[in-house]
Amino acid sequence: MARWQGQFRRWDKSPGNPVCEIDLAVDVLLRERLAEIDPDAGWLSEETADDPSRLDGERIWLVDPIDGTRDYVRGRPGWAVSVALIERGEPRIGVLVAPARDEVWVASAGSGATRNGQPLVASQLSGLQGARVPTDSPAKYLPPGVLSVAKPNSIALRVAMVAHDEADFIATTSWGYEWDLAAAALIAAEAGATVTDANGAAIRFNTPDARIFGVLAAAPDLHPEVLALIRQWAAGVAAGSR
Fold first, then answer.
1. Are 64 and 81 in contact (CB under 8 A)?
2. Topology, domain 10-240
3. Read out DSSP for 98-127?
4. If exposure means fewest CB atoms within 10 Å of the residue's CB, which of 39, 50, 67, 103 is most exposed?
């Protein structure tokens, strides 16, 4: 946080995929501190070379040192540190810390979720009319009746918005990585949201390639309706490519 909006080295890991020296410093710090809490847990982080031995253990720490690096390097507040403890493929503890927004999100499996110590209750909207979705797309690209709300660059924070009833759903339909979603998925689920991948399947963590096909986090009654829209869109894309 002390270096945010200051001077630091930054570069692109690939086109449009920024990283900075702060990502790497946070990665080192978290690995040291989390190993003190559970030294037997494996490690999977966006900024560390993957060690396949993680697949042999019961638990791993699943970490994104800065989720939303694009906002971090631009001096915007939509970034967070994401940490989850995964046990046998399921998140047991999830923490998001967004210091530029003065937010600390915490969840443990079966015990609910909080933001800054206050219990979270996810959106309970039952239909698309008036549904809020974090996006920077013009309204004309949204389904009828759906409203655009401010979108942080961090996908974890966008999922957490559903947990806090600041959004009614968030949906992506591209491949992402487990470290982006592990903590936020638990926070949203413990707040009462339904969280799946873009196909509507349960998300498992600590998989060999550590990838997830999209995410759909939504109010429980809204989830099937958004999933139907995703499938309709996918069918249209498939038909157009023939």
1. yes
2. Fructose-1,6-Bisphosphatase; Chain A, domain 1 (3.30.540)
3. EGGGTEEEEEETTS-EEETTEEP------S
4. 39
